[in-house]
Amino acid sequence: MAERWKTRPEGSNWGDFGPDDQIGRMNLLTPEIRRKAAEEIREGRAFCLSLPLDYPGSNKLTPYRHPPRFHHARRGPGHNYNYALSDVNEIFSDVISDDAVLLFTQYSTQWDALGHVGSMFDADGDGVAEKVYYNGYRAGVEIVGPDDAPAEDPGAGALGIENLAETAVQGRGVLVDLETPYGRARKMVGYDELMRALEAQGTGVETGDFLCLHTGFAELVLSMNRDPDGEVLANACAVLDGRDEALLRWIDDSGLVAICADNFAVEAYPSRPGETDRYPGLPLHNLCLFRLGIHLGELWNFAELASWLKAAGRSRFFLTAPPLRLPRAVGSPVTPVATV
Ligand code: UVW
């Protein structure tokens, strides 16, 4: 297939992994890098890096995303909870339950697919900007129809989360503790602040690494007991500063394959309150998802892992974090596991 663009966006890597590529920088995670990552398993101890998926607990953090809603799965005329299999054959003694859940895929601990954030961009060079995603894939399918009715064929025709799932998602995580140096008040973290935190831990990021950011945000969410204060959370903890060109350049140069944070957008949103010139509201998403194909993880829960690593004087661990292999989804819940 030929390239989908005449001019690629400035600073993008479109085409570098092939014109049809849909996994972006995950291409850098070679078997050899994964084998080296497995050397981080020294104690055999494992940590769950997910929030319970019904946290934060309401839609007060992101008004357009709601907690999971359980529905009765039907079985014949009744529902399928505590279904006595003797209804099928009286000799059976089994009792069975099934689930049906309405799940906003990006409500809680999650991966953003590359199809999650694109940009208005003139890929044809005809002077007209259109809706374009990583590697020049165009927006072609409406997610919802008029009046919020589901469209006939919703979902991403390309760049869905199944592409990430098919890579199996295992490698080396590097946990950067931003809570210790910067506290739980809102703090914009640019290149200088991130480098200071890495230096304080005596660690660095190499090609193929998953950069993981612990800010204390998940602990704050958990402390609110499913009754989140949206105002407090919107102004809490460290967030990456997507306006900082030095930080964006470092992300590009570092070779990292994903950034996973315990906060809800990795970066501050909106990025430039009061700005009047056209500019991405999510410049770090623009760099990562749109220009470079770097996946973003959000609302991960690093609390226990962070304490353990700090006590052990370590920053690195083996990470396993496949999303659901759900074709056409633009995001997915994930239950990441760290092994140390
Ligand atoms: C937004 O919609 C702000 O995206 P994300 O969940 O990736 O932060």
CATH homologous superfamily identity of the largest domain: Putative cyclase
Radius of gyration: 21 Å
Our estimate of the beta-strand percent is 15-25%
Helix share bin: 10-25%
Strand order of the largest sheet: 1-19-17-11-13-15-16-8-18
Protein name: Cyclase family protein
Pfam families: Cyclase
In brief, what are we looking at here?
The protein contains nine helices and 19 strands.
Tags for this model:
340 residues, alpha+beta, Glucose Oxidase, domain 1, two-stranded antiparallel ribbon, 9 helices, binds acetylphosphate, KFase/CYL, Cyclase family protein, KFase_sf
Q: Could you walk me through the main structural features you see in this protein, from its secondary elements to its overall organization?
A:
- The chain has 340 residues and is of the alpha+beta class.
- It has 2 domains: 24-59 and 105-117 and 156-339, Glucose Oxidase, domain 1, CATH 3.50.30.50; 69-102, no CATH class.
- Helix content is 20%, strand content 19%.
- Strand 9 and strand 10 form a beta hairpin.
- The radius of gyration is 21 Å and the shape is globular.
- The chain starts with 30 loop residues before the first helix and ends with a strand.
- The mean pLDDT is 93.
- The structure holds acetylphosphate.
- Acetylphosphate is lined by residues 106, 112, 116, 264-265, 269, 298.
